[in-house]
Input
Amino acid sequence: MDDMAPTPNGSNSRSGTETVASGSGKNGSFPCESGPSATLAAREVTLADPAGASPDRPHCLDAALDYTKHGFSVILLHGIVDGHCTCGQPDCTSPGEHPIDSWKTAQTERASPEQLEAAFLRNPHANVGIVTGAVSGLVVVDIFGPYGLTSFSKIVDEPPNLPSVRTGNGHHVYGRYPGTALKNFVKTYPGLDGRADGGYVVAPPSRHASGKDYIWRTPLEDPLPELPAELLALFTSSGEQREPSPKRKSRRDDAGPLAGS
Ligand SMILES: [Zn+2]
Output
């Protein structure tokens, strides 16, 4: 364990600075990487700029409220202002990705829309996080860095048409929590992590430290579709590394740490 070791306040993870390897998988097969780029770009703009958002409304508030309608447990994360994390720590190791407050309660109880609205108005630059696992009925596969897409394409034959997000250095794929306890998994394959019970993810339209916003590539749907069996199996594996990680210079992390306080 290096950058993924959990810490009580979830402040361990580090912002990825790797080059995004979009489309560099075995066959470049990630579903959202295909199709005319012009169409995709147009859709991104639409999804990143929800109707009804006003300039003085907190950047992530409307999305946060929408996530509650999907039954997700939503938390506030520190945001990025002028390239810096709003936590104010000059040596912050997870800019824009760590919770503003303890998120222990959020692992078992969902905040109400009223609570979230008040919290975002107090923290207008906050990013938005979604707690994964049973509380949200959600599991997320985090595909990151230069090897993530290659690993992903080795595991799934057919690119699944699942809700997905473009992160700062890869993709998050959303699926339904199957109802039995599921653990996070880390680097069973290079560039692939899973978030389930005891995890969270940074969600759109949060701002990444790179300055890019997280955006939906394939929108959420209700109910969430199930992950393909081969992906779900990663969450129940013993955690042994199936394939060693190639050496990398930089570190990653778009998703939250594996355990909260
Ligand atoms: Zn910070």
In short: The longest helix spans residues 37-48. DSSP finds five helices and eleven strands in the chain.
